[in-house]
């Protein structure tokens, strides 16, 4: 396959490499993802993460396996295994549905490779369009708050919510970004802080629990987050903690925007209650671990609840900033998300 370079995915010497997002920012370590088992392991461990990137990495691996001569049925089986790697972000399922269609072509090996490439190229373009639409909503001098990581690390392009922040920054409109650390896995503290630093966007890192008082002090002009799945009624699943921000923003009358590509939309999910929410290991809450080390603070027998995502009801969202346009609450009420987009 043709070589490929994104912030966190590389195709080189007919191998797929992923930038280990658990090692960042202390270490920039690239890991081979040559087999389904390896990639599923990386996805489970969030070494590769972010809704669009999970789908792209799975599609590229299937293209590589097809090119290496894996029989059709085995590629199909691999697709099924990858599809189940993480349940909440629908980009994975949407991307793999397209690869599955390519597998029905007479020259399926070439078709799968082409489709995987197309998905990457499309994702880049989708990010740019989201950034253009989103930046138009940012007022000069804005102090914007974001959660989790939605940048180049999580997509093939400039990102979704972070793409908006970048475009608005390039237009000279961003005074500062407040970065939620995003417990329990610290995607904000480790990844977004690192990305914004690289992009030279001024930011300040906060603990998730600090957002409320900042809003009360009038220090947040808008909240920008990504999405893992948008249901037919406009409800949005995103990283745990997003819902609390939406409630806070509503109370403080601060606009709350969701930025996502149409590959994150799932018209088959009637509402947020139908979105499967991934439950994760207790160790993520009883302590922390990463390339910075390991630490446990909770009692050995502590019972834990650890959903990786929550659902923000459509009623709390000011705008769904997609690649096609900015969707308004009125359009959502009229049923725009009940039909296929894109
Ligand atoms: O568990 P993660 O780190 O994969 O969760 C990521 C998020 O919730 C992001 O906000 C979402 O996937 C959008 S990434 C452009």
TrEMBL record:
Q: Which domain of life is it from?
A: Bacteria
Q: Which residues form the signal peptide?
A: none
The reactions it catalyses are: 5-deoxy-alpha-D-ribose 1-phosphate = 5-deoxy-D-ribulose 1-phosphate; 5-(methylsulfanyl)-alpha-D-ribose 1-phosphate = 5-(methylsulfanyl)-D-ribulose 1-phosphate
Known EC number(s)? 5.3.1.23
Q: Which GO terms describe its biological process?
A: L-methionine salvage from methylthioadenosine
InterPro entries, alphabetized:
IF-2B-related, IF-M1Pi, IF_2B-like_C, Initiation_fac_2B_a/b/d, M1Pi_N, NagB/RpiA_transferase-like
Q: In which pathway does it act?
A: Amino-acid biosynthesis; L-methionine biosynthesis via salvage pathway; L-methionine from S-methyl-5-thio-alpha-D-ribose 1-phosphate: step 1/6
An MF annotation (GO) of this entry? S-methyl-5-thioribose-1-phosphate isomerase activity
Keywords in UniProt for this one?
A: Amino-acid biosynthesis, Isomerase, Methionine biosynthesis
Which of this chain's residues are annotated to bind substrate? Answer: 49-51, 86, 187, 238-239
Q: Where is the active site?
A: 228
Top-level EC class: isomerase
Site Transition state stabilizer — annotated at: 148
Q: Which family does it belong to?
A: Belongs to the EIF-2B alpha/beta/delta subunits family. MtnA subfamily.
Function, please? Catalyzes the interconversion of methylthioribose-1-phosphate (MTR-1-P) into methylthioribulose-1-phosphate (MTRu-1-P). Also catalyzes the interconversion of 5-deoxyribose 1-phosphate and 5-deoxyribulose 1-phosphate. Part of a bifunctional DHAP-shunt salvage pathway for SAM by-products.
Q: What is this protein called?
A: Methylthioribose-1-phosphate isomerase
Q: Which organism is it from?
A: Serratia rubidaea (Serratia marinorubra)
- Gene name for this UniProt entry: mtnA
């Amino acid at each position: 396959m043709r070589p490929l370079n994104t912030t966190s995915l590389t195709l080189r010497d007919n191998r797929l490499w992923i930038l280990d997002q658990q090692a960042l920012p202390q270490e920039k370590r690239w890991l081979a993802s040559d087999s389904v088992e390896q990639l599923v392991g990386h996805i489970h461990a969030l070494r590769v993460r972010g809704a669009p990137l999970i789908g792209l990495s799975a599609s590229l691996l299937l293209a590589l396996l097809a090119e290496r001569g894996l029989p059709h049925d085995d590629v199909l089986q691999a697709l099924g295994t990858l599809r189940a790697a993480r349940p909440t972000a629908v980009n994975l399922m949407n991307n793999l549905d397209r690869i599955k269609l390519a597998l029905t072509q007479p020259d399926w090996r070439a078709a799968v490779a082409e489709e995987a490439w197309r998905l990457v190229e499309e994702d880049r373009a989708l990010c740019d369009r989201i950034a253009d639409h989103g930046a138009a909503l940012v007022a000069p001098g804005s102090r914007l708050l974001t959660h989790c990581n939605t940048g180049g690390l999580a997509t093939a392009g400039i990102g979704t919510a972070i793409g908006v922040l970048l475009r608005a920054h390039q237009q000279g409109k961003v005074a500062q970004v407040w970065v939620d650390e995003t417990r329990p896995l610290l995607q904000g503290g480790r990844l977004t802080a690192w990305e914004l630093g690289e992009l030279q966007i001024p930011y300040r890192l906060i603990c998730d629990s600090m957002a409320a008082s900042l809003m009360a002090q009038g220090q947040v002009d808008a909240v920008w987050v990504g999405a893992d799945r948008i249901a037919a009624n406009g409800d949005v699943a995103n990283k745990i903690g997003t819902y609390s921000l939406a409630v806070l923003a509503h109370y403080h009358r601060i606009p709350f925007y969701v930025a996502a590509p149409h590959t994150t939309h799932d018209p088959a999910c009637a509402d947020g209650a139908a979105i499967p929410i991934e439950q994760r290991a207790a160790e993520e809450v009883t302590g922390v671990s990463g390339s910075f080390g390991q630490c446990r603070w909770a009692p050995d027998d502590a019972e834990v609840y650890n959903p990786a995502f929550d659902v923000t009801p459509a009623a709390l969202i000011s705008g769904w900033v997609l690649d096609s346009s900015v969707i308004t609450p009125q359009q959502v009420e009229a049923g725009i998300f009940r039909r296929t987009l894109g």
